[in-house]
Amino acid sequence: MASRSTRLRRTPHKQQPEPQARAKWTASLTKILADVMVDQVHKGNRQKSSFSKKGWKYICEDFYKQAGLKWDKDQLKNRFAVLRKQYVITKSLLDESNFRWDEATGAILGTEEAWNKHIMEHPDAETVRSTGCPIYKQLCTIFLEEGTNGKHNGAAEHEKGTPDSTSYQPPLNTIKAEERSESEEMAKMDGEQDRFQSATSSKDGVRKRGRMGVDNAIANAVLEMAAASKLRAVAIKQCSERFSIADCVRTLDQMEGVDERVNFGALDLFNNRTARETFLSLKADKRLTWLQGKCSILCDP
How many CB atoms neighbour CB 151 within 10 A? Predict the structure, then answer.
C-alpha cells in the first residue's frame, strides 16, 4: 500500500516538454519559406493581407518537410511580416530611376552617391544595401496585387519594376525629348553647313571658320542635352520621393496602438499613392482612426 502511494506521488513529476526554440533564420531558410508561400498563392490560399487558415497549415507542413524544422505558425507569421517590410523597402528603392535589381545576384545596383542620399532620408534601406534582395521575385508574387492569387504576369512585373541587369531602358518621354533635342541640333548643324557651303570655297580661312562653327554647334548641343538630362533626373527624383512608401512605413512604425491587423492592412494601402498622400497629410492624431476605418473595409468579407 505504501509502495502504491509512493508511485502516485511520483506521477505528477513527468518531464514537461521544452518550450519552442527561437527561430534563427538564414538566407536559405528564408528562401524555402518564400517558395512555399508562392506555392500557396498559386493554389489560391491567400486572403487579402495574409493567408487562409488552410494556407498557413500547408505552409507549416511544407516548410517542415523541406527545412526539417517544426516551427509553429506564429514563428512563420513573424517572418512573413519581416518579408513584407523587406518587399516595401525594396520596391520603394526600385521605384526610383537611380536603382535597379540584378536578378542573377539579387543585388540592388546604384551609385554610391544615390545610396548615401537615399539612406540619409530612408535609414531602413541600409539593410538591403549590403544584402540585396535575392527573393524579390518571390516577394512580388506574395505581396503584389494581393487578391489575384498570383495570376499576374511575374515576368512583366520584373521588366516593368526591376530592369534587366544588362540593359536599362530610360523612360519613353526621356527618349522622345532627347530625339527632339537631337533633331533640333541636327537642323542647326545643317544650317551652319549650308551657310558654309554658300561662302567662297576657295578660301581656306572661310572653310576653317565654317568647321569651327559646326564644332561649336555640336559642343553647345551636348551641353544643352546634359543640362536637360540633369533637370529630368531631378524632376523624376522629386516626384518619386513625395509621399513615398518608405516615408509611410517609417511614420507607421512610430505610431502607438497599431495592432497587427491594422499594420498589415496599412502596408497594403501604401501601394496606392492617393492613400499614401492622404495618410501623410493627416494630422498625427487622426491617422490611426483613418487607418482603422480603411482596414475594416478591406477586411470585411
Answer: 12
Give kind and range of the element (H or E) at residue 46.
Answer: strand 46-47
Q: Which three cell numbers stand for residue 109?
A: 545596383
Residue corresponding to grid cell 505610431: 255
Q: Taking a C-beta distance cutoff of 8 angstroms, is the pair 94, 108 a contact?
A: yes
For residues 298 and 182, what is the distance between their CA atoms, to the nearest angstrom? Answer: 50
Q: How far apart are the first and last CA of the chain?
A: 63
Round to whole Å and give the CA distance between 179 and 2: 102
Q: What is the pLDDT of residues 27-83, one digit of tens each?
A: 999 999 999 999 999 999 988 788 999 999 999 999 999 999 999 999 999 999 999
pTM of the entire structure?
A: 0.47
Contact 143, 105 (CB under 8 A): no
Task: Supply the Cα-derived Rg of the chain in whole angstroms.
Answer: 29
